[in-house]
Predict the structure.
Amino acid sequence: MKRKIEILAPAKNLVQGMAAINAGADAVYIGAPQFGARTNATNSVEDIAEMVRYAHLFKAQVFVVINTILYDNELEQCKKLIYELYDIGVDALIVQDMAIMEMDLPPIVIHASTQANNRDPKHVKFLKDAGMKRVVLARELNLDQVREISEATDVELEFFVSGALCVSFSGNCYMSIAGGERSANRGSCAQNCRLPYHLIDGTGKTLIANSHLLSIKDLDLSDQLPNLIEAGVTSFKIEGRLKDIVYVKNNTSFLRKKLDAFLENNTEKYQKASSGRTFYNFEPEMDRSFNRGYTDYFVNKRKEKIGNWESPKSQGQLIGKVLEVKANGYIIENYEKLNNGDGLYFINANGEADGAQINIIINNVVVPNTFKPLPVGTVIYRNSDAEFNKMVEKENSAVRKIAVKLSFTETPDGFQLLVIDEDGHQNIVAMNTEKVLANTQESVVPNIKKNLAKTGNTPFVVDEITVELTQNWFLPISKVNEIRREVLEQLIDIRVKEYHREEFQIKKTEHPYPVEKLDFTYNVSNKLARAFYKRHGVTEIEKAFELQWDPGKARVMTTKYCVKYELGKCARFQRDTMGEKLVEPLTLKHGENEYKLKFNCKPCEMEIWEKDAELEFEDEDEQLGYVKKH
């Protein structure tokens, strides 16, 4: 059987969700009124119901994120919401909290959020055996690790391929609580990773001042789709439930085109996961919507720097260098790409991220609203593309249509129109009318075909029309239009009604969890989650960070990102060029908040601890076995 390959787009709201479907998404993920990890992207059950109907028309799916950790007093409300979501036809839930697996649920499909420790074959296989139909893999995995997981279990695998990256292992960042008592696992991330920090060494010397030392570039794995499919991924996820409609349409369209090109050359093994085809009135380019510069993260293992320390704001599209500075503007390489109203991004003479908006371009001089002196050679990016945004925001910039065949024939009492769509759904509408011969020798067939082909704003495009008449009957164009409208309107209802939703009833199991002791990073915050883990053989369960934070001494993040590597001071990968070792402990400081950095070189991870934590630091050469331990 052919494997379906899916593009999964974010939906901040109903409008953006529909736009994502029109742009070619095979599925969207959307927040409910509660319990989603983006409190600024909630939607009413009524809007989700409308989203479901629209998506199902194209055989696309709707997944609802119920991915916060739950407290005991929320369990009943959460269960009630899940029943409502099931009743309106939602295809699946994306969950972090294992309490949901312990509830008495309707037969709704459950996916494991990337926040559920999905980093190794044992954990992923456990979740599959517990009843999860899909697992959203950790972003930090490389192709070999993805392949290893795929070989260990036949669960569906979803992987992020575009958008912002959490610098921390997902679900294991507690900086937001420690820095201001807002829980990322409860939907209120304060994005402490995007703040500027000073980096101070063990002697008290400031190595780097006021830089965004934990801010990393955005993800772009669009060139890796074939490799990821080969490794076992079936769903490609775009991050961005808080992003604007231009970002959603542009990124979805770009990936749709990439994936379609692959599918066309691999029809024997793979197929598109939904119906219809999209017609574009713009050329999608990912660097023309919000981005901080791009990285492939660790999918091809650690090989390049991934930080974007100048700014957490959008960098956008590379334009060129400043060639000359005039009294009121600049001569810039490739200036012909720019338009009035565009936003420019550059690093100023102080090494800070800066910007300006174009007022006008006269001859070849780019004149900003506010002139800022820039050195010749400054690299210019465009982070707001006024013309592109205007074009993509239009409703007709991406239009999705389902292919149909129409057959117009006679009946004893008049005529009938049969429609069959690309998925085999069909509908017939009859028109009872007296048959009158046309008072011309000219065939009426071309005119009938011409008017049957006018599908207008319907979600259909006519690929084939046959008209079979025994005589050259006269037919008013209004009647032809009427029967066409009726047959297509009814087909919409038929497609939605005949949509097949996969259902799955969770049955409680007792197979052993891969570990017996859970620390706070497993985010256990209620009695049902505790019961779930205990039934699966876990003997010790630490409370979630939110329930037992000891201010000043906690580990607030674990990450594959490494400040030493970014500085060229990695004893494993940059040994020959690193020069003198840094004096530890290294400290990050932002205002009153201070964090110590601890480097675990064997697993190639960095930990961030609060300032009063008592830590033992082991020399990196000893960790890696280059020298014997003292």
Summary: The longest strand covers residues 398-411. Residues 76 and 231 are 39 Å apart (CA to CA).
